[in-house]
Specification:
single chain, alpha+beta, Serum Albumin, Chain A, Domain 1, 2 domains, 7-stranded antiparallel β-sheet, 19 helices, 20 strands, 16% strand, globular
């Protein structure tokens, strides 16, 4: 009997039989169903590169990246142009005043590298800066809309480091498209208008509340938000781009750094960032973390990124939970996916922090032996409870370190894009200013990040145990950003994916991998699947896209289901088919577009 058929009987069974059936069903979850079939591993033959592609969250950014490819630029060259434009037209999500992670695939060497542009905390940061005198949180909004929340922006330095390795065009012209838009103005998109209208009430409109630059940037003299289609220029940003085009180091020295410090030093809730903090920032080139999945290799950034949870979700599925043959139509398969998420999130929430400051059990969390053990800790009798972290330390050589429970709930305010260039090189990049419009403070025409609110506000949990993601000087806060590149059995590029969405990024990204590799969907179909996030004691499901059958199935299993209207991902996906043709997945929940470039 298949899992889907069994699950139907479970839903329709009398109450007196449900307990016995749930026990049987748990057994089915822990081993691959005998009737299940595994999709054929898709390999990518060596075919000439005849097309490139750019997938971003905004058509102006997609065009800027595609134009760079047409001019002979690399995927990294295009990424610079894309992020410069997004910083202007999508300021609620990312920008040069923030940071990010880039995963890069080199088609010649078949190497996957990671460029870490995550922000760092000031050297003299107060570890309790987000707590009041009574030791209680000052509140997320007070922390966010402050100078306390801004870390040293890492985006420009990261892009320069990647350009040194993989740029084909000279540094400078990358900023032309964004500069022209900043000087002449760009039309306010429906999404940007909606963000201003919905969240504008949190932007300071008096000096007593904080710097008012953003208010005057987004609202007219009558206090009305900029209308859809209204032209918005940004001469300050154009000046910043001119400086960066001439010398990217100018971001970290001189007038730009001084402007950033001046803004973060303003009351209320002034921060401790200094020009010395900015001048000493160093991006990092790191070895990608890779994990096997059914003959493929999944790769992403190491900590402080939370990509480990993406790898663990997929490993848990392959190592014992398994799917039945009914794919996305099976409620049982969604239950399986939810259980894998809950286990991985529990590990991530407690064990992941900046690997340069704390020990993280990377090998243990990605150990097939650990996955096989971990799946035994799932089950219907625990469906309505928050799961505890496991013990991946037992599956690697590092000495176990005990960390406190961390309740950090990073908020959505991010973007993701993918580029494939004429050489077959690939960039999968997730960038962020953390929450919507970052700290709401501006410098050099840019919105400054509030990434330091991604740290645990408290150093210790209720038991007195230090948290892995606690605030420390010069430390990078834990990030949910999980840009991913997938290779086939020949180490050729197969797929790139990623998403914005705060801590939900992990679930959104894993959904596309499951949709394509397990449920036989196209990238676009996988993106359009309902978003489901199973973290802690709650399972959130996107009610406008999920069927009633699916929602009822999750509830019947025992999950505490929240029918959410706000699972607003921004997935960008590219998949290489057997013939070398590139298929794109563009998230309809945002304003993204895919733009192809023909090299024939």
């Amino acid at each position: 009997m298949g899992i889907a058929k069994f699950f139907t009987q479970l839903i329709n069974a009398p109450k007196t039989m449900k307990h016995k059936l749930l026990i049987i069903f748990l057994g089915l979850l822990l081993t691959a169903c005998a009737s299940a079939t595994k999709p054929t591993v898709l390999s990518t033959p060596s075919v000439p590169v005849t097309e490139g592609i750019v997938v971003t969250a905004n058509p102006l950014a997609s065009k800027a990246g595609a134009d760079v490819l047409r001019a002979g630029g690399s995927a990294v060259d295009a990424a610079i142009a894309i992020e410069a434009v997004l910083s202007l037209v999508e300021p609620q999500s990312s920008g040069l005043g923030g940071g990010g992670f880039m995963v890069h695939y080199d088609s010649q060497t078949k190497d996957v590298s990671v460029y870490d542009g995550r922000e760092t905390a000031p050297d003299n940061i107060n570890p309790t800066q987000f707590l009041n005198d009574d030791g209680q949180s000052i509140g997320y909004l007070n922390a966010k809309n402050s100078g306390l929340s801004t870390g040293v922006p890492g985006m420009v330095a990261m892009l320069k480091l990647a350009h040194d390795d993989h740029g084909l065009l000279p540094w400078g012209p990358h900023f032309d498209a964004a500069k022209q838009l900043a000087e002449k103005g760009f039309p306010v998109s429906p999404r940007l208008h909606g963000m201003i209208k919905r969240f504008g009430k949190y932007i300071p409109d008096t000096e007593q509340k904080g710097p008012t630059d953003a208010y005057h940037y987004f609202f007219d003299e009558d206090g009305e938000p900029l209308a859809i289609g209204a032209m918005r220029d940004n001469p300050d940003y154009a000046k910043t781009l001119s400086l960066l085009a001439e010398d990217p180091a100018s971001f970290y020295h001189g007038v730009i750094a001084e402007q950033i410090v001046a803004q973060t030093s303003k009351q209320p809730r002034a921060g401790s960032l200094t020009v010395a903090d900015i001048a000493t920032y160093q991006p990092q080139k790191r070895v990608a973390v890779c994990s096997p999945y059914k003959g493929r290799k999944l790769c992403g950034p190491p900590p402080p990124s939370s990509w480990l949870a993406v790898g663990e979700i997929m490993g848990l599925i392959e190592s014992g939970i398994g799917f039945d043959v009914d794919g996305a139509e099976s409620a049982a398969n969604w239950v399986t996916f939810a259980e894998a998420q809950r286990l991985a999130y529990a590990d991530r929430d407690q064990l992941v922090g900046d690997g340069d400051f704390v020990e993280v059990p990377v090998a243990g969390m990605l150990s097939p032996a650990y996955w096989k053990h971990r799946v035994t800790q799932a089950g219907a009798n625990l469906a309505s409870e928050a799961l505890s972290a496991g013990n991946p330390w037992a599956y690697e050589s590092k000495k176990q370190v005990a960390y406190g429970v961390d309740g950090t709930d990073d908020v959505a305010g991010t973007t993701h894009f993918v580029v494939v260039d004429g050489q077959g090189d690939v960039v999968s990049l997730t960038a962020s200013v953390e929450s919507i419009f970052g700290s709401t403070r501006m410098a050099g025409g840019m919105f400054l990040n509030n990434q330091l609110t991604d740290f645990s506000f408290r150093q210790k949990d209720k038991t007195g145990q230090l948290t892995a993601n606690r605030i420390e000087a010069n430390k990078r806060p834990r990030s949910s950003m999980s840009p991913t590149i997938v290779l086939d059995e020949n180490n050729d590029f197969l797929m790139a994916t990623g998403s914005p969405g705060g801590n939900s990024i992990i679930a959104y990204t894993a959904k596309t991998l499951v949709g394509v590799f397990d449920w036989g969907l196209s990238p676009q179909q996988a993106v359009e699947l309902p978003n489901m996030v199973a973290r802690g004691a709650k399972v959130r499901i996107e009610k406008d896209r999920a069927s009633r059958k699916l929602i009822d199935g999750l509830k019947q299993y025992g999950f505490n289901v929240h029918e959410s209207a706000g699972e607003n991902s921004g997935l960008s996906v590219v998949y290489r088919n057997k013939d070398g043709h590139l298929s794109a997945g563009v998230d309809p929940r945002r304003e993204g577009t895919a733009e192809r470039v023909n090299f024939e």
